[in-house]
Design a protein that fits this description.
Cyclophilin; 6 strands; mainly beta; 6-stranded antiparallel β-sheet
């Protein structure tokens, strides 16, 4: 599915999320904590990008993690954003 560009909405001052129209495969677990740069699936169709560390009691399916999340909160800002995800190879 990469590369893809998504409109992501702000939630709770620590995450951006996007709901897909179709369900995705899941393997949920309860993480010991959320870390800046974690990319998780909530339920079977909600992609979440976290930009702040915190504890949670929710279950997520881990999708990936940003290699260098330094400054992510500053870059994403306080409102909704448009984010492009790629596989990091520079190709399509």
């Amino acid at each position: 599915m990469l590369p893809m560009t998504l409109n992501m909405q702000e939630l709770n001052g620590n995450e951006k999320y996007h709901y897909f129209d179709s369900p995705l495969p899941t393997n949920p677990s309860r993480p010991s904590g959320i870390h800046t740069g974690d990319l998780m699936l909530y339920g079977n169709n909600c992609l979440v990008l976290f930009y702040e560390d915190f504890a949670t009691s929710y279950s997520y399916t881990p999708i990936g993690r940003l290699d260098n999340p330094a400054g992510l909160e500053r870059v994403l800002g306080a409102g909704d954003v448009r984010v492009t995800f790629s596989d990091g190879t520079g190709g399509t």
